[in-house]
């Protein structure tokens, strides 16, 4: 047996740390969704208005207005959504604190039962429950009973800012293409550049999330192209009618 240090750790044994991507889920979801919406919404709006036969200046102004409106909408929607999750988590924490204060014995039994259900024998499960309760009773219940942790906690402001920033960056790409492209090539430039951005976004999300690049890229590109085609068709129809 290895000798113990004064802190209770064995000498020569270093804590094993693994680089999991679980902690990235929150901001990755908000960032990918925001950037994807920015590219798709803005490019579709530009193509739809351009297909209607509107002047180039009107196309650019509409795209800029759509970018600002979309970014604000993304921020507001994400903040409201994640705030609801945060309120639920706060309510669960408050209820768990009351239960721990009112009946700690039953809460200890509940924690023990959770560990037994996960495969520990009753005696060991009780010992684990007692030690974790002595260290941080509320944290143990939040983590093992409710699935709450610092990594998964809802952060409304962070989610709102990430979504708005990602949407703005994504939306600026097709708008930039429309700004610099010759008038005759505007629709082609916006569509091609937006598709390239969507493919890059899908690949980046796959790399960060640790998944297959091909499927992620194809998924993002398919829905983006579909949105641009449908919006262009609608713009052309209304332009012809007008």
TrEMBL record:
Q: Where are the transmembrane segments?
A: 45-69, 159-182, 188-208, 220-241
Q: Tell me, what is an example of a GO biological process annotation in this record?
A: intracellular manganese ion homeostasis
Task: Report the locations given in the UniProt record.
Answer: Endomembrane system
Q: Which InterPro entries match?
A: Ccc1_fam (IPR008217)
Alphabetically ordered keywords of this record: Membrane, Transmembrane, Transmembrane helix
Topology in the membrane? Answer: Multi-pass membrane protein
Kindly indicate whether the keyword Flavoprotein belongs to this entry.
no
Q: Under the GO molecular function aspect, what terms does this record hold?
A: manganese ion transmembrane transporter activity
Keyword Acyltransferase, does the record have it? no
CC per GO annotation = endomembrane system
Pfam families per the record?
Answer: VIT1
Query: What name does UniProt use for this protein?
Result: VIT family protein
């Amino acid at each position: 047996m290895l000798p113990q240090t004064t802190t209770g750790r064995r000498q020569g044994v270093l804590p094993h740390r693994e680089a999991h991507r679980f902690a990235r889920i929150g901001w990755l979801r908000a960032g990918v969704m925001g950037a994807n919406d920015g590219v798709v919404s803005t490019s579709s709006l530009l193509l739809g208005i351009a297909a209607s036969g509107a002047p180039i200046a009107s196309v650019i102004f509409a795209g800029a207005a759509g970018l600002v409106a979309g970014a604000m909408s993304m921020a507001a929607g994400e903040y409201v959504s994640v705030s609801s999750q945060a309120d639920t988590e706060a309510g669960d924490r408050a209820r768990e604190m009351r239960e721990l204060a009112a009946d700690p014995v039953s809460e200890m039994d509940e924690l023990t039962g959770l560990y037994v259900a996960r495969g520990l024998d009753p005696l060991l499960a009780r010992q684990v429950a007692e030690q974790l309760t002595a260290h941080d009773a509320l944290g143990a219940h939040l983590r093992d009973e409710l699935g709450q942790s610092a990594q998964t906690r809802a952060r409304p402001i962070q989610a709102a800012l990430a979504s708005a920033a990602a949407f703005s960056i994504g939306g600026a790409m097709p708008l930039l293409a429309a700004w610099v492209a010759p008038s005759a090539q505007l629709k082609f430039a916006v569509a091609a550049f937006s598709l390239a951005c969507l493919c890059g976004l899908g690949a980046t999300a796959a790399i960060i999330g640790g998944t297959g690049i091909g499927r992620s890229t194809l998924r993002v590109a398919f829905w983006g192209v579909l949105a641009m085609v449908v919006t262009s068709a609608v713009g052309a129809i209304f332009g012809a009618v007008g």
